[in-house]
Amino acid sequence: MGLFWLENRTMLLRWWYRLRREPLTLLSTVLQPVLWLLLFGHLLARMAAGDVPGGDYLTFMTAGAMVMTVFNGAINGGVELLFDRETGFLQRLMAAPIRRLSIVTSRFAYIVAVTAVQNLLIALTAYLLGVRFATGLAGVLAALGIGGLFGAGVATLSIALAFAVRRHPEFFTITAFLSLPLLFLSSALAPLDLMPAWMRWLARLNPMTYAIEATRALVLYGWDARVAGTMLAGLLAFDLLALLVAARVLRRGLA
């Protein structure tokens, strides 16, 4: 166990040093989630005033911005492993005395950690703009946990995709094709009640909706056991499905 932790810590430091050497990427990682909240929150504030739960669109949008940030970070999180495959570094790494599982788990942990930091920045920005979690600081921490649970499934699928495709253009084509439909077929930007029936039906199948609704309840209403239970069931089922898919792909990719 100690060796496994050492391998993961070393690989995590590698990802961190790579990010630190790319100041524009680091700046984008920090600022992008805040821009999500500022641009969407203020762009649609007047148009949606009074039509959203809570009455204030920025408050309504905070949960959507947090979960969208997790999704965007996690869905592209596996691409670094694909770059390692393309440059041949992954093959050299697999020849080293290191567990192959550590290569995957360290990347997974890095993605979840970065998205958690981004979500913390969104919560802080929202607070400075006057948004208050009805559940207080404990609710912020719970929202980070929800983001982690949702991001775990998305990151797992992203890592699996990195081993399933041959070149990074395929990776970006697939993720770009999926991102916008999944975003609009969720309650990130609009309440489920305002959607057309067919979109509402599809949105209820989207795991992003479960994460958003549970986070939104923490922001707007307070603790809700029914919403939390539904979210847990939905996201755990999603994570399990993602794990099964990834296990099948990685068994072949890391062989």
TrEMBL record:
Keywords: Cell membrane, Membrane, Transmembrane, Transmembrane helix, Transport. One of its GO terms (cellular component) is ATP-binding cassette (ABC) transporter complex. Residues 24-253 form the ABC transmembrane type-2 domain. It is a multi-pass membrane protein. PROSITE patterns: ABC_TM2 (PS51012). Belongs to the ABC-2 integral membrane protein family. This is Transport permease protein.
